[in-house]
Amino acid sequence: MSKYDAFAAPKIVEFRNFLLGRFLFIMGLRMLGTLVGWWVYELTNEPFAIGLIGLSEVIPAVSLALYAGHVIDISEKRKLMLTGVALYFAAVLMLIALSTKISLEMLSNHITVFCIYIVIYFTGILRSFTSPVFNAIMPTTVPKEILQNAVTWNQGGWLTASVLGHAGVGFLIAGVGNTNTLIVVATLSIIGFCLLFRLPSKPSLNQHSEKKTLESVKEGLDYVFKTKELLGALSLDLFAVLFGGAVAMIPVFAKDILNVGPIGFGWLNAAADIGSVIIIIGLTFFPISSMQGRKLMYVIAGFGLSIIVFAISKLFWISFVALLMSGVLDGISMIIRGTIVQLKTPDNMRGRVLSVNSMFINSSNEFGQFESGVAAKLLGVIPSVVFGGCMTLLVVSVTWFRAKSLRDMEY
Fold it and tell me: Which structural domains are found in the chain, ordered by start?
């Protein structure tokens, strides 16, 4: 099987089941995240309340990430993954109960929002295990020589699920309301679970290791910090998304600045992911073959500029195109970063290294959501997003001069 075959990975049945199962699960999660942001803002009319959603999830996700990596490396990964998916389903059932008319009549808006935060905190615990275990299983479903192709398909599937989740939830909220939308999310989780259940067992490669937990965790951290290209890519992603992510404030832009309602909100949420899917389809057939490190920095700088354009736009179509372009650039970045992580990680350390990767991602996304809420409260919504885009440009500039090994990296 040629490694240049664009469909090499999907031809493998095991990878195909993994890809489809994860696709449905991620689609449901993206619908859930988008719905919760809209729901909380609807109940509070307060941008800072949206930021607290991210804080509620990131605290347990980051706190447990290193321990989760140790557990993943010593556990049967398929069982751990299926347990996480099943518990996510239970969390969705809790939110369904909170969204019913009976609950809304019995509970005040403030209590409902507080309960939503508790459920999101619970999903943060699950996320510390499920995100890295999915990424640890993926390379075991294909031969190593087509791993780059599998990474591209995996990222493409993730982003396509995000597009459908983000865009679809706006239509569902407008058409059938919060409760029925959550029922759709629960259904997607069940179907995804059934596909993932078909994967074979994924036993630990460290079953006979006698390392203590702290020693095992330290080994994973040491590997990340000693591998400069890996550390540089993760750090660049951490700070760029921490400051440059505008997604958290999209409910405010949609409702109060652009006045487009839930359907427009869904499309704005999906815009970046649509752009990412478009470019990843292209990269599946025409992979990046040289100067990957430099191109990573170029596209993240362009991402920051796109965020600034989005912030100052007063027209829906300009805002949509700006987010679309940010997604195109972020899609290129995701492929380069994802390939670096998978190629640089030994099989027996995937849980620990990918948990550190997950910790960086959770920090950038959820702390970024919290940072956006705080900045919006202190500076105002539009100035806070402009500030974030400018900080992204500053981060890239510093990285260009301080991380020469990443800048010059090729694979």
Answer: 13-203+211-407 (1.20.1250.20)
